[in-house]
User: What shape does this take?
Amino acid sequence: MNISQIAKLAGVSPAAVSRYLNNGYLSEEKRAAIARVIRETGYTPSSQAQTLRTKRTKLIGVIIPKIDSDSISQVVAGISQVLSEQGYQMLLANTANQNSRELDYINTFSQNMVEGIILLGTILTPAHKKLLKSLKVPVVVLGQSIDYESCIYHDDYQASVGLAEYMIGKGCKKIGYIGVTEKDKAVGKLRKQGFLDTMTKHGLKVCESAIKTGSFYMENGYENTPLLLRDNPDLEAILCATDTIALGAIKYLNQNRIRIPEEIGICGFGNGRAASILTPSLTTVHFYYWECGEEGAKILLEKIASPDTPNKSVKLGFELVKNESV
Amino acid sequence: MNISQIAKLAGVSPAAVSRYLNNGYLSEEKRAAIARVIRETGYTPSSQAQTLRTKRTKLIGVIIPKIDSDSISQVVAGISQVLSEQGYQMLLANTANQNSRELDYINTFSQNMVEGIILLGTILTPAHKKLLKSLKVPVVVLGQSIDYESCIYHDDYQASVGLAEYMIGKGCKKIGYIGVTEKDKAVGKLRKQGFLDTMTKHGLKVCESAIKTGSFYMENGYENTPLLLRDNPDLEAILCATDTIALGAIKYLNQNRIRIPEEIGICGFGNGRAASILTPSLTTVHFYYWECGEEGAKILLEKIASPDTPNKSVKLGFELVKNESV
DNA sequence: TTGTATGCGTTATCAG
DNA sequence: CTGATAACGCATACAA
Assistant: This one.
């Protein structure tokens, strides 16, 4: 069923039907006639053909490193809400932690298809910068601070300082750290730096063996905690770069009957669902993930509406969640 | 940049370029010439125009009730993997638990855009049935058993029987239940029925006040647990229809220093990330969520490839995760 | 206010 | 093997 068949049935020209669809000039009678035919036939215009003409797809590409993560799924939920309110659809691409696929998806998306791209950033390489700057479609990067595109990010450094101060305030002096690759500037580098700087400020040493690095998964915490304890028998607490890593650490400690926080204190980042349920509940920081997605989508839609809007970079706050694990 | 400009630059006809793009008949020299021009210009074909001709969008619509859920995000991850392997993109629609929006999205998707739809089912009404049966595009329903479309679902009933048997085997006689609306056949009705049937089979009574119903969120468990305890002072255990609900119950019990499992046993469904981390760890059943998404996507792609494939309905198994909470 | 004619970028047909 | 040409379904400039 296409526009000219409808026109024929309604006894008008295809152009009239098009005008009907787009609220153009039309007499009441014709309007009514067309309305009736469309209702009876259940006709809907082809969005492909519309796009071919108007160049508007109403599609936003969203690229994420993984979907089964508390924090990311919240960001996506925030994005999803704003987009659907504005009549946009979300094309979701999951790189499954294969960084190179980010570039592929950015390309695929930008070639055609989407009007804008939201990238949940992890490791942003020079190749990213080059590719992103070359795009015709607007981009917003979430979770990492960059200077060549609009971005929304969390105050990872200060959050880390906050947690470290809190741990030190609780009397911990010998604190270990389990993090992720520093190639991830937000989660890997800044959180670690905030910790180290705070320790230094208080005159506390952190030797090389008290710092471990691994993946974004629970295994990281589970496998590095015993190493940390082996290398630092007098360890009093562990700061983990994410709640998920902290969960892995807790799993190991529980299994080995090491009491939290009496023997070892634990902190994470992200305030995931499990944090408040655990016994003892996990001390962590709350980041505004949902808002991050929401705000990111809004900024992207603004950029689409007026392409010459200057880049914005928004730093979101955080809240210390002082629970019982330290 | 379009196909005829490329053709002009390469000194061939647009048709030749099209053939180049689609692996048609072409001499080596022309092929080389076209390849060079395409490389130099960075040309990519317009997927809209391609679609307009071929009717193929390479888009799959996926409709979910919420994104920030352990189980759902795993299903989506499974779907995502299969689709991307096959060169399909995923259009994700999040209804945010507004059931009516499911119908809207099914309509939007099916009108144009997508070649197939995956629906993560919750409450399937007669309106759903009518709409789904009227669609031209293939559909696969995940998580609910229905007879008019292909579906992949879990053995909710037997899983519930398994948990109930296990609890009874542990000596519990007075068991309460916190569930969700029975309009959700899989999670609401079957899980409850499996529990009730098993209790009856063992000659154990479950009075009305030992059964509570609420949302899919933690609040359900958190708010209904005290009611359950008030109405049934001699309660020995609670079976919760989801891990998330169980987490809410555990939160309440922890806050009120009611020991698990000594005073009250707890079970859930789903084997979410938190289950094994909790102390005591949560007894639950493992469902194959990732595989559910994977299998669903495969079946959908089969249906797209050969539209007259008969409907399939696949029941996935489960595994009892015997942890410490009961 | 209305209709005609044209083109968006591609692919399929068909004659060469 | 190749190229001209006609669709695909729609929106718009322009003429009426």
